[in-house]
Amino acid sequence: MYPELRERDFExxxxxxxxxxxxxxxxxxxxxxxxxxxxxxxxxxxxxxADYYRHVTTxxxxxxxxxxIDSLSTNLTYFFxxxxxxxxxxxxxxxxxxxxxxxxxxxxxxxxxxxxTGEEPYSLAIALRETPELAGGDFRILATDISTRVLKTAxxxxxxxxxxxxxPRDILYRYFQYGTGQSAGYYRVKKEVRDLVEFRRxxxxxxxxxxxxxxxxxxxxxxxxxDKETQNAVVERFYRCLVKGGYLFVGHSESLTGLxxxxxxxxxxxxxxxx
Length: 275
Fold this sequence. Notes:
Elements: H1 7-21, H2 30-43, H3 49-56, H4 62-72, H5 84-97, E1 108-113, H6 119-129, E2 139-145, H7 148-156, E3 158-160, H8 169-175, E4 176-178, E5 186-189, H9 191-194, E6 197-201, E7 214-218, H10 228-241, E8 242-249, E9 264-267, E10 270-272
Parallel strand pairs: 1-2, 1-7, 2-6, 7-8
Antiparallel strand pairs: 3-5, 4-5, 8-10, 9-10
């Protein structure tokens, strides 16, 4: 049995998570917090949620703080989720590579923000490799997430068979290796694809470093966990990270309607930086 999660302890934990990574743990998430952190409390021999909170807010508890954020991050994803986005990106590639008509060819730079266990950035890499103009790998993908746990899975690029069952057979055989022996039932993304993706831990609440300059940003089904104030701040950071003419893709159930932003609407869930 887990200890009782008192309301004041839930409020403290919720505020800490919100301040650190913008995730809004409203009252409906109380049981989720109790279940996911209750396991950590038991394994770490903490007396209560209050005791656990005190620990993660000390210098000695910073490693556990990262584990706490990992535990409370929701990571639901699969390969080629919302497939129309990948089709649209392939259509947009030629004008992007030509510098929007500026007469110079550029290396395509894509950011997968909130990449979870890696299915999205690897799907991007495969879709772009299947684009004739990029068959030689003339692109780079940066994939970031706040969770070190999911990034470890993403870097390995190994997935159980049920994770790849939506992938067309020809694509699966071309870009994945089937495991044998103890690895039977698992698929690994081939090295030629893994090498096209750089994974980093990054918190969307932070200011991006100077090297965050992209033609395309994918941030899909991430901002739904943020309140409006946080969404405004994150969208503004994306705008600054995009080159002129760059595109922002959000989830099909998401929209920038009601937010403060300078993007031009292209079509549902796709926006463009024009200035």
